[in-house]
UniProtKB/TrEMBL annotation:
Name the UniProt record assigns to this protein: Glyoxylase, beta-lactamase superfamily II
SUPFAM superfamilies in the record: Metallo-hydrolase/oxidoreductase
Listed cofactors: Zn(2+)
Residues annotated as signal peptide: none
Residue span, Metallo-beta-lactamase domain: 13-167
Entries under InterPro entries matching the protein: MBL_Glyoxalase_II, Metallo-B-lactamas, RibonucZ/Hydroxyglut_hydro
Phylogenetic lineage: Archaea, Methanobacteriati, Methanobacteriota, Stenosarchaea group, Halobacteria
SMART domains in the cross-refs: Lactamase_B (SM00849)
MF (Gene Ontology): hydrolase activity; metal ion binding
Keyword annotations from UniProtKB, A to Z: Hydrolase, Metal-binding, Zinc
Cited CDD domains: metallo-hydrolase-like_MBL-fold
Length: 192
């Protein structure tokens, strides 16, 4: 089960995905709302926090979640405060009941990761791409448009047209032809 705990929150935050199952995790912790209460309303315990990247809107609630559930955080760069364990590019990890591969996808931020399950056709895209061909900002520190395009293309090489769901860092998840949204983002990022 995948649930967006930030859905309907009227505050500046990222989406926060609770992935329940054999290994119950939260992907990103969001900001400016009580994510601990939102987690507690759905599950009794949490096994880990997994981060797409460490922009503040994705990690401001990180310490509160780690303290409340006595869990550690996994991300690309363990030298960043709050990241306890490093996930390498291509590393496989269990999210819920399914295996995902971590894909290093810089361009929006150097430590950005996407998570893809080939078995279920699910992609957690973070702030790399969004609905309707939108893509992550590159005007912030560590942002780079050329690198972002390369990262989007790398994801396109891993996924296929059978992609069933794409869960993004902001905005709605995409369950109708999500592959087309990633492909459009690749084209749009080149033009902008």
């Amino acid at each position: 089960m995948i649930a967006n705990l930030a859905q309907g929150v009227q505050a500046f935050t990222s989406n926060v995905f609770l992935v329940d199952g054999e290994r119950t995790v939260v992907i990103d912790t969001g900001a400016n709302f009580d994510v601990v209460a939102a987690i507690e309303s759905r599950v009794d315990d949490l096994d880990a926090v997994v981060l797409t990247h460490t922009h503040r809107d994705h990690v401001d609630n990180l310490e509160a979640v780690k303290d409340a559930f006595d869990v550690e955080a996994w991300g690309y760069d363990a030298s960043i405060d709050g990241v306890d364990h490093e996930l390498e590019d291509g590393e496989r990890l269990l999210l819920g009941d399914h295996e995902y591969v971590a894909l290093h996808t810089p361009g929006h931020k150097d430590d950005h990761l996407c998570f893809y399950s080939e078995d279920t056709g699910v992609l957690f895209a973070g702030d790399l791409v969004f609905q309707n061909g939108s893509f992550g900002r590159t005007d912030l520190e560590e942002g780079d448009r050329g690198t972002l395009v390369e990262s989007i293309d790398r994801v396109l090489e891993r996924i296929d047209e059978e992609l069933s769901e794409m869960h993004t860092g902001h905005g709605p998840s995409v369950a109708t032809e999500p592959y087309d949204h990633v492909e459009l983002a690749s084209r749009m990022a080149r033009q902008a």
